[in-house]
Amino acid sequence: MKFSFCPDCGAALEPRDLGDEVGVPWCVRCDRPWFPVFPVAAIVLVIGPDGRVLLLRQNYISTEFRNLVSGYVAPGETAEQCARREVREEVGLDVDDLRLQGTWWFSKKEMMMVGFVARASRTELKLSSEVDGAEWVEPSEAIRLVHQSAESVSRILVSRCLEGRF
Fold it and tell me: How far apart are the C-alpha atoms of 48 and 161, rounded to whole Å?
């Protein structure tokens, strides 16, 4: 979100250069900058003990493609804590060996995605109400079931799994 008015006092913001940052929205009245803010979400490729990966069906996201576990980072929470919490909430699993894979800008929703790979020691699932279905599939099958765009973090993480890059 880009600010046009100061969230504290309501004054119109003026562009100001701050060091290397050009045109930062500045409140003259409060004497402070208002940098753009955006949501951050964790996305997790969960790998089972047999090497299969977990895909979710969440109709509110897509009826065509499968998804990985994901969710918004809460205030005061790290991306790692969010990743573990979302896996526990959405599918009832605790994960081990959580590994950061990178960050990606998801332009469709103007948000930062923090990608992880994690291992689960069991495969029995307890789905939350926001998950319409879930299944363990071979990575070679998963790559065909996730969104196919080059920007798809799900596709990037499954591709890395296929290549053994984590």
Answer: 12
Letter for the amino acid at 5?
F
Q: By C-alpha distance, which of 34, 108, 116 is closest to 73?
A: 116
Which amino acid, 163? E
No. of helices (H) and no. of strands (E), the chain: 3, 9
Cβ distance 46 to 91 under 8 Å? yes
Q: How confident is the model at residue 165 (pLDDT cuts 50, 70, 90)?
A: confident
Q: Closest by alpha carbon to 158, among 101, 95, 82, 87?
A: 101
Q: Are 44 and 116 in contact (CB under 8 A)?
A: yes
**Domain co-membership, 30 together with 44:** no
Domain with residue 131: its CATH number is 3.90.79.10
pTM of the entire structure? 0.90
Q: pLDDT value at position 108? A: 87
Residues 87 and 134 in one domain: yes
Q: Please provide the DSSP assignment of 146-158 as one string.
A: B--STT-HHHHHH
Number of domains in the chain: 2
pLDDT score, position 78: 98
Is it the case that residue 103 has pLDDT exceeding 90? yes
Question: What is the CB neighbour count within 10 angstroms for residue 47?
Answer: 20
